[in-house]
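From: lab user (bench 3)
To: helpdesk
Subject: output format question, protein + thymidine-5'-diphosphate

Hello, I'm new to running complex predictions and I'm not sure whether the block I got back is the full result or only part of it. Here's what I submitted:
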Amino acid sequence: MKNGLFITFEGGDGCGKTTQIELLDKYLKNKGFDTLLTREPGAKGLGVKLREILLNYDGEVSPQCESFLFLADRAQHIDCIIKPALKEGKIILCDRHTDSTVAYQGYGRGLDIEEIKTLNNIATGGLKPNLTIVLDVDVKTSMQRVGKEKDRMESAGIEFFERVRNGFLKIAEQEPKRVKVISSSDTIESIHKQIVELVENL
Ligand code: TYD
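Helpdesk reply: Thanks, we reran it on our side. This is the complete output you should expect:
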């Protein structure tokens, strides 16, 4: 791979990732870097169809099926978008990736964590982010920010989101070099500064 960088953003729903990714994107572009802003699930093409099912399908979805759909989206995203962009030397800013499946389907839905990690590895071909930023949000704030119009995932309930939050914190504890936690209760400007510092260290 050329000099590309792969940075992922993770955290509970309503943690403020989107705002921070956009601020970082602007900052990097101003410095002359070539960036690619992308997301999971559903960056484009087939992924958009999978996203539609994952977030809006209103019938029964088994946790295993849900995992495989997120993983299918990931495999497509890695092969068709992320790897080519890395080869072109881009800085990729990705809204959610492998850690979301560990936190939501593993810790949240209760699937086996090691199995999810193995499946993640298959979906990504072993490619890991250079840096992962977890914006830690308490569940009450998260639910307030999401509001009343909830998608399928956001309707999973408070206890589910407590498990997801703890899941992200556990991941960060286990991989402290790659995964950095920032409290989403800081101001937007302060969070942005902390993120810039982490990215400049790369
Ligand atoms: P999205 O609208 O992108 O949420 P957010 O703006 O909070 O990122 O919806 C993505 C939803 O899918 C979110 O609830 C997290 C969930 N998700 C998983 O459960 N597993 C995964 O592997 C991924 C990538 C997302």
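A quick orientation on your result: Residues 13, 40-41, 55, 70, 95-96, 100-101, 104-105, 153-154 surround thymidine-5'-diphosphate (CB under 6 Å). Let us know if anything else is unclear.
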